[in-house]
Task: inverse folding
């Protein structure tokens, strides 16, 4: 039972344009959401998070949007840079649930 | 560098064998988490220890076990290995017992079972 789903395994974007990575969840107990970035041969690194009391959180070029009614969140990267090329994992937690990760989306930013 | 160390980086072994993966958390972190990432899969949570005690259990097989020692380092023991156990195993640590604490991940151990 995949409670956190990233339906796009990969995404290609031109440098300077916006990258939008999507994530859906099924468990209504989730109230905290995170994005992690992973480069090859490294562990995931925390990128940005959002609590369910907010619908938007921004950190520099990265913005996470949360739509609770749709059980959907998205990560926007503007402008996209070649160094952003990585695998992005969406994750969710809530109640007594452990942090649950999605399967990841591989982003390629083309120079 | 996250401050979380994992050894070894790579491990190649045969079916039926037993291996031990080691993790040292960031200084000051009391929680250690273990995750498995198989091909095309997300990070599957295995188990969490907090200050030496088991805190949460995920999809960990009975052939797998873990512990956290008084110095807070942790070991994940995998026994009676099968081909399907080949994966990347990540350790993460956090200050407290769970969210919203950020988890800091180590570089992983790549296990290949032949």
Result:
């Amino acid at each position: 039972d995949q409670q956190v789903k990233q339906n796009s395994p990969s995404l290609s974007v031109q440098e300077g344009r916006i990258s939008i990575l999507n994530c859906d969840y099924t468990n209504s107990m989730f109230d905290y959401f995170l994005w992690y970035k992973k480069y090859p041969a490294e562990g995931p690194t925390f990128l940005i998070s959002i609590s369910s009391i907010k619908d938007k959180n921004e950190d520099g070029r990265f913005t996470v949007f949360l739509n609770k009614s749709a059980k959907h969140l998205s990560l926007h990267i503007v402008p996209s840079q070649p160094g952003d090329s990585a695998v992005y994992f969406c994750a969710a937690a809530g109640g007594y649930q452990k942090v649950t990760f999605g399967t990841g989306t591989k982003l390629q930013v083309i120079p | 560098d996250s401050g979380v160390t994992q050894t070894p980086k790579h491990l190649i072994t045969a079916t039926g064998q037993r291996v031990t993966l080691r993790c040292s958390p960031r200084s000051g972190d009391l929680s250690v988490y273990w995750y498995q990432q198989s091909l095309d899969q997300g990070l599957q949570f295995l188990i969490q220890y907090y200050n030496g005690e088991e805190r949460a259990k995920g999809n960990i097989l009975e052939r797998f076990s873990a512990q956290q020692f008084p110095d807070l380092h942790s070991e994940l023991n995998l026994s009676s290995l099968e081909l399907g156990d080949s994966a990347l195993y990540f350790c993460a640590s956090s200050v407290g017992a769970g969210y919203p604490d950020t988890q800091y991940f180590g570089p992983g151990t790549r296990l290949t079972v032949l």
